[in-house]
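Dear colleague,

Thank you for sharing your sequence with our group. We've completed the structure prediction you requested, and as agreed, I am returning the results in plain text so they can be pasted directly into your records. Please verify that the sequence below matches your submission; if there's any discrepancy, let me know and we will rerun it promptly.
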Amino acid sequence: MKLARLLIPVLAALTLSSQAMAAEPFKVGYIRVMDDAQAITAYEGKFYADQGLDVQLVEFKSGTDLIKAIVGGQLDTGVLGFTNAASWSSRGADLKVVAGAQRGYHALVVRDDAGINTVADLKGHTLASQKEGSTADTVLRGVVLKDAKLTPQDVQIMGVSPQVAVQSLVGKRVDAAFLFEPQASIAQLIAPVKQIYEIGEVWPFPCMVTITSGETLKTKKDLVWKSLDAQRKAIDLLQHKPDEAAKLIASYFIAEPTLKTLKDGDVPREQVISKAIKTQTFSAALTPADLGRMQEVADIMQAQGALKTRDGKAYDVKSIVDLDWQQARKL
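Please find the predicted structure tokens below.
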């Protein structure tokens, strides 16, 4: 009897601890760009909840900040550019790319009065892009400018958020911007700009992927897989019913019910976002071609000095890719 009385508080404490662990939300990080629409759609469409997950959606201003949170254990998964995972893993971080998200679509938009008609015409001009080392910045410097026979020194590059980039175009602080959706579409509606280039049309690559830590994948594999199932359902909605998806996520990108445009007056935000969704290609799977292109980007990073391995050898993207979920779902 005495032993039983002694065990009661212990058992109660263990029960409370177990309940607290069960109640802890599954945290998913995202950046407020169309590339991360699957996470937002899965949340707003209650697809995470349908999988039995209590998801807390956490916004970050940059992929660097997001990956730091995954490395530090503050997040369970995140949708972001894989260059962040490659860079951190090369320095010893235990990270895993567990699914695809969105294939790279980044538009180069320029002010009508800047006299820029080709990428080569950017020489001597100001350009707003993502922060140095980001996936967008890597392909801008290593693919877009290089193919136009330009060096990063030929262009004054400002590393800012997509939202600030659009504001900079409107305020004439820059002549051009390398933009995600929906900011590329929004810019063309509210500012006197035109699109002259889209990397997704000439050099498609898996821009955004779903990333977790090796520890999270080990201890919460079932929850990670459930989150991927939810995001896969969200991708299906984005790909096949963009108007319906737009109703779920439009407020994340345009605060007011309508967007005041230069030519068409007030346009419903759902209409703007639906058109932006249609320009994108979302995919939960990573194909052999995707992995090959990811390796090309990693090679560019090494050439730029943004990625350094401890032994000085070439970085192998496959070292951070875990396709068990994809193979189990026969994607």
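Summary note from our side: The chain has 15 helices and 13 strands.

Kind regards,
the structure core
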